[in-house]
Amino acid sequence: MNNSTHGSIFVISAPSGAGKSSIVDAVLASESDVVLSVSCTTREPRPGEIDGRHYRFISIDEFEKLRDTNNLLEWAKVHDNYYGTPRDTIDTALEEGKDVLLEIDWQGALQVKQYFPDAIGIFILPPSIHELETRLTKRGQDSIDVINRRLAAASEEISKASSFEYVIINQEFSLAVKQVISIISSARLRYKKQAARCYSLFNSLGVK
């Protein structure tokens, strides 16, 4: 894959209930040059989720076909469901100079790093486990058993935060969104990206 592109990849991960999806939605609404890589999953849609916007909801057979034909950048089984990142739109978006945001779990994030070493990892932490439980309960999308499984998995997921370049504590939502946008803005100023984006200027100034 071509890593010398104008755009960058940002991987956002978090334990379920930490506010990752809400932060991602706010960032996308604010940043027109950031596109979301829509993951595919075999789980059922939650209330309000739209096929093709939040996820591509597909069958297990469809998922396994994508996996077996090497058409997934990464994939994992989480909470008894498959999740994966289709490769079909990522390269195109990068070549067009757009930044690509992946909203995936920590396992997928590490797999993405194997293909895109320059990908920037952002991990979202809740203020506390108690607050995480409160958020999972309030959103009313999962049964008590599912919530308990998510809380049990949260400790392991949180322990992987050290594998990411940035960690944001989502205590105040608006601040968390600003911090993610700040990371994206800073990444656009990295030498390699500026050199690719402003090649003629760099060449005329003799910048190497």
Short description, anyone?
The chain has 208 residues and is an alpha/beta fold. The chain has helices at residues 20-30, 60-68, 90-95, 106-115, 129-138, 144-159, 173-187, 191-197, 199-205; strands spanning 9-13, 34-37, 40-41, 56-57, 72-78, 81-86, 99-103, 120-125, 166-169.
Question: How would you explain this protein's 3D organization?
Answer:
The chain is of the alpha/beta class and 208 residues long. The protein has a domain at 9-38 and 97-205: 3-Layer(aba) Sandwich (Rossmann fold). Helix content is 44%, strand content 20%. The chain is built from nine helices and nine strands. The chain has helices at 20-30, 60-68, 90-95, 106-115, 129-138, 144-159, 173-187, 191-197, 199-205; strands spanning 9-13, 34-37, 40-41, 56-57, 72-78, 81-86, 99-103, 120-125, 166-169. The chain has a five-stranded parallel β-sheet, with helices on both faces. A four-stranded mixed β-sheet has the order 4-3-6-5. The chain is globular and about 65 Å long. The two termini are 23 Å apart. The mean pLDDT is 90.
Spell out the blueprint of helices and strands.
Elements: E1 9-13, H1 20-30, E2 34-37, E3 40-41, E4 56-57, H2 60-68, E5 72-78, E6 81-86, H3 90-95, E7 99-103, H4 106-115, E8 120-125, H5 129-138, H6 144-159, E9 166-169, H7 173-187, H8 191-197, H9 199-205
Parallel strand pairs: 1-7, 1-8, 2-7, 3-4, 8-9
Antiparallel strand pairs: 3-6, 5-6
Helix pairs in contact: 1-7, 5-6
